[in-house]
Amino acid sequence: MLHRELGVELVNLSAGSPYYNPHIERPAYSAPSDGYDPPEDPLIGCARQMQAVREIKQAIPGLPIVGSAYSYFQDFLPHIAQATVRDNWTDFVGLGRTVLSYWNLPADLLEGRPLRTKSFCRTFSDCTTAPRNGLPSGCYPLDEYYKKSPQMVQLRIARAAQRTSGQENAA
User: Fold this and answer.
1) Cα–Cα distance for residue pair 48/42, rounded to 1 Å
2) Closest CA to 124 of 104, 143, 105
3) Which of 105, 48, 111 is nearest to 77 (CA)?
């Protein structure tokens, strides 16, 4: 197989950039404070990403594949991830922003502990709004460290300024 000849041992399939087109990479129930309303239902984008991964997995069955776009599923993420791996749509499920709010999800799943559903990423988008404002990425609404940090104050100020700027631009 060509991927082995090229030394490719694993591929993570993702799409878009969370900083320029967050509706593709980080679908959310509502737009980031400095973003835009998504042009489609976020589930459509998730399904499209999962289907693309499935097609590539079928086309190159010997290449281990990591699928993305699972965070949006929140409490259903473990079930959907299990089904896609079981049905050979992907070999691994990448957990991106989910681990910012629920970093021990994999351990809880593997050890059979009850899920802490209040820790699942709720797609508030502060994890991308913060870096666009020079702050570290983190789950400011759910993670106590970020919630109580001085950066949270800076993020609130940045969001308020963006809202004010957006209102002025709309006028």
Assistant:
1) 10
2) 143
3) 105
Phi/psi at 149 (5° precision): -85, 155
pLDDT, the chain, mean: 86
Residues 109 and 64: their CA atoms lie apart, in Å, by 22
pLDDT tens, 118-171? 998 888 888 888 988 999 999 999 999 999 999 999 999 998 888 777 655 555
Domain ranges of the chain: 9-170
Q: Which residues contact residue 84 at a Cβ distance below 8 angstroms, ignoring those fewer than 6 apart?
A: 50, 54, 67, 90, 93
* C-alpha distance from residue 45 to each of 32, 56, 106, 138 (Å): 17, 17, 24, 23
Distance between CA atoms of residues 151 and 133, nearest Å: 10
Q: Specify the pTM.
A: 0.80
